[in-house]
Amino acid sequence: MKLFGSKNIPFSVPKIDGVRKRELIDFQQISSLKFKDENLLNLAFCHRSYTNEYPHPIDNNEKLEFLGDSVLGLIVADYLYHLYPDSAEGELAKIKSYVVSEISLVKVARKLKIDNYILIGKGEEYSGGRNKPALLADCTEAVIGAYFLDSGFKLVTEFVLAQLKEEIERVDENRYYRDYKTLLQEMIQKKYKCCPRYNVLSVEGPDHNRVYHMEVKINDQIFGPGTGSNKKKAEQEAARIAYEHYRSR
């Protein structure tokens, strides 16, 4: 029986033999992590299906997953809060939901080769469990939770951001859709207690290939033109121009 955590909460984990110790060392080298207690890392890899088949009672990684999910959310929320100081809560929530999603966590898991180190039961192994996205994402959260307990918030923050900054930068580079009309309206209502007004400047081209030019007026300032194949797209472009103007101030 090993004791982990600030409140001396007991966790029973499988014994680490020579082969397993080498595997845990390999993972730490791949991930650039260094655990003071490798039993805690080993617990992060213990899937419920493995513990159910173990000859005597041991714990699984579900509590670490629960903890890691909360730690991950706090780290990403804090980072986004400071990275985008002028962004509305709704936009930050959208970015965060993607960054901490199963899709993102599976990318991290595959990059760190977590599937090579998970301890799973025979039945789960035969059904392809080692490559199931949900299992990989859960184990990634468990590793985060374990590293938080082992090394503290500062080091786990460095680890998480090293793994997820690329996904955050993808959002910043507008590789994912951003609703600039909504973002602009929320910003302007908060700052000036008014709403942006959109006007059509011109429409060009035949019916099957129209090009719209729009402007947006905020108080006495006009931004644009925004151009698009329909009014909504042109409004979004005009809103983007205005939004980026106010965000940079």
Structure description:
By secondary structure, the chain is an alpha+beta fold. It folds into two domains: 2-172, Ribonuclease iii, N-terminal Endonuclease Domain, Chain A (Orthogonal Bundle); 180-247, Double Stranded RNA Binding Domain, CATH 3.30.160. The protein is 58% helix and 12% strand. The chain contains eleven helices and five strands, in the order ββααααααααααβββα. The strands form two sheets. A three-stranded antiparallel β-sheet has the order 3-4-5. It has a two-stranded antiparallel sheet with strand order 1-2. Helix 10 crosses helix 11 (231-247). It is elongated, with a radius of gyration of 24 Å. The termini are far apart. The model is unreliable at 1-9 (pLDDT under 50).
CA-based shape: elongated
Widest sheet: strand ordering: 3-4-5
- Main beta sheet strand tally, sense and closure: 3 strands, antiparallel
| Poorly predicted parts | 1-9
- CATH topology-level name of the largest domain: Ribonuclease iii, N-terminal Endonuclease Domain, Chain A
Structure characteristics:
single chain; 249 residues; Ribonuclease iii, N-terminal Endonuclease Domain, Chain A; Double Stranded RNA Binding Domain; three-stranded antiparallel sheet; elongated; disordered N terminus
List the helices and strands and how they pair.
Elements: E1 2-4, E2 9-11, H1 18-31, H2 38-44, H3 48-53, H4 62-83, H5 89-99, H6 102-111, H7 122-126, H8 133-151, H9 153-172, H10 180-192, E3 197-204, E4 211-218, E5 221-228, H11 231-247
Antiparallel strand pairs: 1-2, 3-4, 4-5
